[in-house]
Amino acid sequence: MISLRLENCMQDTTYLSATDLLTRFRDGSLDPVDYFEVLAVAAERQQATINCAAGLFLEQGRNMAHESRRRYAEGTARPLEGVPVIIKEETSVKGWPCPQASLVFKDNVAVENHPIVDKLLNAGAIPFFQATNPEFCVLGHTWSKMYGVTRNPWAQAYSVGGSSGGSGAALAAGVAPLATGSDMAGSIRLPASLCGVYGYKPPSGRLPCAPGSEYMTQAVVGPMTRSFDDLVLMQNALGGPHPTSFTTLPYTELPTEYGDLSGMRIAYSPAFGHPALARDIERNLLQALDGLRQRGAIVEEVALRWDLDEINMVLLDGLRAMYADEFMTDISDADAEKLCSYTAHMRQQASEDQPSIMPSAVLGQKLHRDMQEKVWSKGYTAFICASMLTTDLAADQDPVAQPFLELGGHKVDANLGWCLTPAFNLLNRYPVLAAPTGLSELGVPTGMQIVANAYDDETVFRVASNHARAGTSRLFVDQFPVLG
């Protein structure tokens, strides 16, 4: 039984941003312990419908919230003091299970924190919610034999994307204002777009990676949040070196305030010339571009014609060579029975061929030269495109059982053929920020990718700041999911 006081508090505070939370914690108008109890209720309630929790660590969170209360009283609060945070299951928290959503590894427990977890803890944040991901994080949706199907809070029949789908869903369900994600082929940007939140794929080396992942330059960790200001806040908390990471670049904090876009030239290509882009996604994208024009930008379409099938195949081969095949071939035939269809299919591929990372490097260079010729050398500072071709994706879509999708009369590969994200994992030094653009006709959020040239992080944040100020998307402003 929930008290009326707590119910009223839930209505008032569930969707507060971390930025607003910190202000209220500091001025004493909201207590970290009371707020944590609000989110504990939200975390438990969503599981019956959304199913985005791999684990709940409420007592640990309560203890940390009491510590935050003490620090505010003593004047020793840290930058994220008392802010609850969602942690993707793949991202290790010492003492938490880390099976990678696989029954094969169901007994695995993390023996140390991922570097970004250490950074969150050092900043005073409260990890308490472990979010679902697909098995081994190799699917663009979020379902597994271990956790079942994670559903979209905006429209529960539809996909939250993957592999950071649990993080996106938990943000949309009001579980916490901040979440971690990781991105090998769009795994931050796809869920961010489908759940109506912000997500950042930083350039390789910008944030510390897990020990052993240093050479997987296509894959990065990054922040996911409901508001733009929170994305800046979280990215700044995660930046900088960590003792276990030798590849992290020096970090200069991002500004928290940005001017308008007067004089900035922005190029766009809705879907790299792909004919299957849904009209509602394109409509929302064009409205967002009009908002940027109102903020002073010069926005012009450019003719990029990229072979998405080739990009997807080359990226997947590279990821298999660097990541998946290493342990897929070590799984016994007995354990293979426990695998999901999509990982069993990958295991079968691993036994039949030998993928290489070299085509990824070659194609990445080709794509960069095309961007250089048509975008960067022409005076454009940023580039924008949609995040995906469609939102009509079932929550439990299985690309093994249904290898192709029909999109507007065009047949595309069901695995990654609907995604517009993988090119920027080949161009892995490019910063890419996913921002919400509105709702599709199905009631599922849509999103866009804001891209800049290598290591020009500040530009994508400047554009995203102006997008947020333009207000063409009303998601989590005056439009919210109805969870039921």
UniProtKB/TrEMBL annotation:
GO terms for molecular function: catalytic activity. Belongs to the amidase family. It comes from the Bacteria. Residues 42-460 form the Amidase domain. PANTHER family: GLUTAMYL-TRNA(GLN) AMIDOTRANSFERASE SUBUNIT A, MITOCHONDRIAL, TRANSAMIDASE. This is Amidase. It comes from Glaciimonas soli. InterPro entries: Amidase (IPR000120), Amidase_CS (IPR020556), Amidase_dom (IPR023631), AS_sf (IPR036928). Coiled coil: none annotated.
